[in-house]
Amino acid sequence: MNTGGLLAALVPLVDDLSRDLPEGERYRRLLQAMRAVLPCDAAALLQLEGEWLLPLAVDGLSTDTLGRRFRVEDHPRFKALLTADGPLRFPPDCDLPDPYDGLVDGPPEALEVHDCMGCVLTVGERPWGLVTLDALDPERFATVDLPSVQAFASLAAATVTVADRIHALASRVEDERQRAEVYRVAAGQQPPRDLIGNSSANQRLLQDIAVVADSDLTVLITGETGVGKELVAQAIHAASRRGTQPLISINCAALPEALVESELFGHVRGAFSGAIGDRRGKFELADGGTLFLDEVGELSLPVQAKLLRVLQNGQLQRLGSDREHRVNVRVIAATHRDLASDVQEGRFRADVFHRLSVFPVHVAPLRDRQRDVLMLAGFFLEENRVRLGLSGLRLTADAQAALLSYAWPGNVRELEHLLSRSVLKALARQGRRPRILSLSETDIDLPRTGPAFGLDDDAADVDADADADALSRPPIVDPAVGLRAAVDDYERRMILDALARHGHNWASAARALGLDRANLNRLAKRLGIK
Q1: Coil, helix or strand at residue 438
Q2: Exposed/middle/buried for 443, CB within 10 Å: 0-12, 13-18, 19+?
Q3: What is the pTM of this model?
Q4: Phi (first) and psi of residue 305, to 5 degrees
Q5: 190-210: per-residue pLDDT in tens?
Q6: Which of 83, 55, 80, 59 is nearest to 68 (CA)?
Q7: Are 219 and 284 in contact (CB under 8 A)?
Q8: Which has more confidence, 223 or 266?
Q9: DSSP-assigned states of every residue in 7-43
């Protein structure tokens, strides 16, 4: 390695240490300098978080790599790099699986990495993460001077130290998050998924979470079905001062009308048939922590009136009791409905709406976050790769283009389910189990036109007859009727069509429409069908 070339690449990095740069830009410059010095086809910077390695920046790897999460125990090369004393190059004939197989940008016939090396980055005498270099040529790193790589890695560690300190100053609630993680593990709960994405819409969402998390303000999360509103609620709770306390969730649309009040506020023995003992409701279970009211727009007006009292002064009465209970609960609510319109039409109380929407947070639909599609796809593909025991799972160029061009009416949930189905179908079509499974556009089999109202693929198939063709098109709004009436009419026709196609079996119709059975019942009642 040329010493002059190394110094020329490192000097700008030293200068960057004293500059106010976004974290992503620091990492991008770091990888650019690395590739300028070392003859590699791809480079990556990964941060160690617990048992996982998270890609923070990549150069020469597929964009969806940024959405993947690598469990160290599943990747022996990463494990070896983390425990090595310095830079480590794997022999070209090494039989350990390479986590980047199929991800390096190159010709379609060259999917497997042939030369691989990396170095652990140590910050404060502890492993912070890894820098990795990969090449498709098996002898590319044969002449690389490992001490020079160590010198470069040391400066790289200084770069991430600066970024880490800046991040620590902006994240004063890290201790609370760690304690929340301990609580979740002790309670047997899974930690919340990351809110993955680099789009401006996702960055605004993360900013809103950072602003409101450390307060006790009531939050109303709005957005279409499938955008991840529950994940946002989990992120707000985890970053709050209540993060070590319980996060209790209730889906207001999934409960029968007669049980909603008992579930929220509790009941005493004899309050109704079957109440054989006293029972605390979700508000009391969440005392000291956070209560997440999912689909809060489905609550009836009488229950809304009782909810208002708890929101105002923290007081509640169990069903069938005159005794007052006081709770200290932060409320986060979510809905896919336009509650402001529901207030105007008398379906939702204005006072409850204003109490809930002290800090509104909107989650953008996936079609407005197209930059995030491939990152999210990478995250879900990595989950499927681990679950199915594959060495590699990748998207071909035409598959990536198809994902980017689709409108995603079912949002992130649709993307997750689509990829899970596609992987299983593609795997079943293989004559023998491959080491690296590539998903093409044909494997993904996206609908030619996006289904409306979050329908699944089966319900989105358009029959040749005129009625089905009409259902596949959005409603035409008559100005004399109005948007609300036109949408109601469209929903009514879709439900009736689904019932007819499934022999008036409500459970089957609900599955075909991508709805919860209770949600379909409520919608049918509102539309006058049931």
Answers
A1: strand
A2: buried
A3: 0.69
A4: -65, -40
A5: 666 788 988 999 999 999 999
A6: 55
A7: no
A8: 223
A9: HHHHHHHHHHTTS---HHHHHHHHHHHHHHHS--SEE
